Inverse folding.
DNA sequence: CAGATATATCGACGGCCATCGATGCGAACA
DNA sequence: TGTTCGCATCGATGGCCGTCGATATATCTG
């Protein structure tokens, strides 16, 4: 089923493009791409990795101080992680504690573990 | 070293935000984020997964037919994968064969394997 | 209640990017 | 040499997003 290796291949007729069989369905690709978009930001990436390794919760003011970004920006990033289902929030008093969700789908877990 | 668990924590003074210790350096985060940006597109994601599982080369016309996009767009996507160092190109006659690079850094390999 | 603190939301701005049609370029073939 | 085919590049366009200041909301304190 493997395609002819490139070193042997080039016996190819002009105007005959052999269609490739995609290994990932478009719907699944869209899902994974959306997840990757959420992770494809330096700040959010650091937050995710930190939450993953810390195994504990942080609140917005902590992140704001750590990354040198404005409070609205940090709130925006955390909201984006929350909308993606990666973290959840627990409000306690004035503070909002964000921590990594533990019930993530296995493929998502594997991806985050590979970061 | 672990932070106080959220269930026990909230003994917190107002105006005292404890800075978190980031688990990923900013420079590394920027690198990984750039890689994720490249992968965070449904078309490129399908190409990468296909090339990964196929272990062989495809040319632009194959992809164009498979994904229903214009030839310039497909050329753009493959160029982006090439610029990111994920694939390399071998020109043979009129065709350009793209295949997954085998000398990727270990972290990159792990990430692609987790897709 | 008045003030302070933590967070969320809003509106705006600037930049990046996916996509396309048009065009250029190189290789093969008649 | 002229034509055709595969691919790359260019310029334009529309949309998404990271960032911020300003503002709203909620909670606590006095």
């Amino acid at each position: 089923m493997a395609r002819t290796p490139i070193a042997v291949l080039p016996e190819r007729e002009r105007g005959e493009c052999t269609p490739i069989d995609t290994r990932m369905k478009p719907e699944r690709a869209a899902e994974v791409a959306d997840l990757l978009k959420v992770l494809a930001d330096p700040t959010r990436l650091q937050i995710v990795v930190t939450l993953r390794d810390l195994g504990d919760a942080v609140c917005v003011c902590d992140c704001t101080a750590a990354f040198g970004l404005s409070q609205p920006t940090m709130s925006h990033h955390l909201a984006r992680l929350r909308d993606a289902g990666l973290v959840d929030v627990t409000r306690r008093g004035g503070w909002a504690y964000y921590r990594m969700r533990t019930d993530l789908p296995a493929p998502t877990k594997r991806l985050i573990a590979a970061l």
Remarks:
- The mean pLDDT of chain B is 90.
